[in-house]
Amino acid sequence: MIRRPNPSLFVALAALVVAACGQQGEATDAAPAAGEGGEVNLYTARHYDADLRLYEMFEEQTGIRINRIEGNADQLIARMEAEGDNSPADVFVTADAGAMWRAQNAGLLQSTSSETLNSRIPANLRAPGGEWYGFSRRARVVAYDSTKVQPEEVDTYEELASPRFRGRLCVRSGDNVYNLSLVGALIEAWGPEKTQQWVEGVVANLARTPEGGDRDQIRAIAAGVCEVALTNSYYYIRLANGDDAGDREVTETVKLAFPSLDGQGSHVNISGGGVAANAPNRENAVRLLEFLSSPEAQTLVSQYNNEFPASPDVAAPAPVDAYADFTAHPMSVAVYGQNQAQAQSMISAAGWR
Q1: 281-291: per-residue pLDDT in tens?
Q2: All structural domains of the chain
Q3: How many angstroms separate the CA atoms of 109 and 90, rounded?
């Protein structure tokens, strides 16, 4: 579903541009017509207020109209497959490198040779062949009850599967792409045997049957259901800096830890995009990706969606800057998707529903 834009957010974002001209393309269920020169057809699985403002800014700066189709990643991938060579999609955008890989593996993305993109986005945050690029980062880390858990008890991922947290762990469903990508990263780092043991340890430690999203896991800690939980960093930052007083109160006792994977840093994932295989407006598609990689766009997404910039040259703005001083694991995010089938098999075998 499309989130209703927050008017106050748009007022704040308006200060980032000098003048407004043109009108943003509306999301629609109908396939957009393949325009020439003045259009780009965007299939996006991201539904955030900040993204809407980005599209407005792109239209204002370039005069190129964005025709937007929204859905979840699997729906959009299926749609592009059904449309085949006649697909009007120019750009595919989604959260999670595993979802980007699924689109690439289905032959729905083409290689993009752009010096701008390659200079702005680190090699480990993009597909090696240029099929997609990450524009923002999120860390999959640990929320914990600071009244019951010491920070050193959650400073590695191994500890989540230790007997210390038997019956004290909350986590969303195992087939969620964020968890699939984390397990895919563990397979790459540890190999299948140790990773299978970790997955089984996670299941043994569950305080309840997995349910809800990451924010629900954080709130469950505050409610005493569990002591630790896996979460994407931006969900916690939203609770800590949002308008809801109850959620802000939650983060007074529930804290965020950035565990290390083999001493090399925390697992990170990306939101990103790529040019569709049959893009009718390829030049405009590349221009949109280059815009999304710009310092201006990365800063806006970081500030208003609480993700971290992808580029090390872009400073994290408030409130994200308070959490940005962590070491990110240098692993290529492209391996998450390659290991996804094996990760799903492990998760299913362990009973992580």
Answers
A1: 999 999 999 99
A2: 36-137+268-322 (3.40.190.10), 140-266+330-350 (3.40.190.10)
A3: 9
